[in-house]
Hints:
Strand content: 5-15%
Structural class: alpha+beta
Protein name: F-box domain-containing protein
Amino acid sequence: MGQYWVLLNLSKRQSWFMGKLQEQIFGMELSRFFGRRFKLLPTSSFPDKLSSEIHSQGQSTLVRRLPSELIVAIFESCDGCRTAACLALTCKLFWDLGRLTVERQLNDATDWTGDRLACIGDYAAKTVDELPKGILDDSERAFIEGYMRQNEKRGVFGALIDLCSLEVLNPVFDLPWIRHKDIYYEVPDDLRTSMYTWLVLVEEVVAPRMSPEGMVLRNLTTRQYVRGNAFIAKCQGAERPLSLWREWWDLQDLIILGICYSWHPTMLRSECETSLIDGLW
Length: 281
């Protein structure tokens, strides 16, 4: 099965390293990728005794003279949430005028809902034709084929890793403008201040619990779907409480629901040993 498996977001060009599939399939929670929302608080929410941590725009006469519309337009033109976050942390005026733009960019960059995903191992495919039909668009297919001509030994797996080279953000704890590999040296005081400010002014919004009843989970690749009320019925009598299915989604849950490329029924069994593949509920 291979030692290296990754979860790929083809839409956002992001990847999440899993390691051995057998060690992750029952423990990899997918809730960090779907439905999480983050809110950026105004600087007025900053504790009074710590208000000096983020700079005042009073130090620059030119900044005070900039039209608000121009500042907002600058935030909108940023090439991503990392750049916009850095700009917002330069002073209170920029934070308050740009925080809604940064918030939107941050949520767009971290939520995988509706994106094209793939889970692949290092020995999964030798050629592009062995991948699920329709999983790649023309530009992605051309990129992989060109990559393999220059890096034949790394194959499809290496090409997909290179295609989806961006890391997955965890905005509350991972600074969106610093990679993990870059923070193992002493952090300068000004950067430490920005780190602390970010942690104080960024909050995760806790979404209300959602019931699967009345919902439909679709697999666009295989053109299959699972109805939420059918899922509830099949889970009756299962050892695992149904509330846990609503609260935490693991990689195993997608396999149980048939949201994968494999069609073999032995790979798609629920807790109560009933197959959910091909609409057989």
